[in-house]
Amino acid sequence: MPVKGVSRVGGLGTAAVLGGAVATAAVLTSCGTSTTSAPERPSRAAPKSPSRTAPSTSATPSASASRSAPGMVQLPPLHADFDYQIGGAYPPPAGVRIVSRDRTASPAPGLYNICYVNAFQAQPDERASWPADLLLRDAHGEVVVDEDWGEALLDIGTAAKRQRVAARVNRWIDDCAAKGFDAVEPDNYDSYTRSDDLLTANDATAFITLLSRHAHARRLAIAQKNTVELAGPRKKTGLDFAIAEECAEYDECGEYAQAFDDRVIVIEYSDSGLRKARSGFAGRLSIVRRDLDVSTPGSADYVRKVR
Questions:
Q1: Mean pLDDT over the full length of the chain
Q2: Distance between CA 170 and CA 115 in Å, rounded?
Q3: pTM for this structure?
Q4: CA distances (Å), 302 to each of 87, 92, 120, 296, in order?
């Protein structure tokens, strides 16, 4: 588990498809190439290969899931039971209405499905497939790496490079939409905090805005993942809701709740964190306790609790 240095928060803000979103998305998409990759990893959990078997469920879509009027983007239902399955897909437990899975997996039928994408960093097995100049480098030409995960940071420091990185990530977003996901969860929004000051918060918000416009053009909602310090401008960046890891553990849930009008999904990784989250927000937010590996049922480390 990475050391807690800065909050790593998730959230999506309600945003309409902007006037030029579709045209912008087309330009961005035309620049990228589709790739096949290994499953992506949890933010605070060790990498785990997800099951490729699509689960079956008798659940029906939530009637409380809402759509933003201008772009008809469907938002996750408020205060709904959630399961975090980015470490491997499996049939959701009874009562679950929202599930998040890796982009290599398939959506869970009948539920609100969120597609996890590692958008700001290169997975170790994908690093060689990125153009060398899109990997962030220090003054000595060395690639800047997130040491917790061994992932190279992507260089989003100029408008031109942001466009090129977004072109590739947007191909993944297109795949999420084609599979039938309802929303996308771009991880590592806070990677600028690990860039040795080579990237800024403005770089991060400019890049997430490109992804938001493209997601909305594909009729997908988009989440802010962690990064509570950037929750304030979420409407400007087009983020619709939040996915926040350990926000109770680090006293951040209230900030997310205020910024996203309670449309917040909380993942805690300890019993104490779950108790704290429920004591303050049980009647307002979607809260689940998972194991650090975000493992599948039958695994020795599997944990899923909602109370």
A1: 83
A2: 12
A3: 0.79
A4: 11, 14, 28, 6
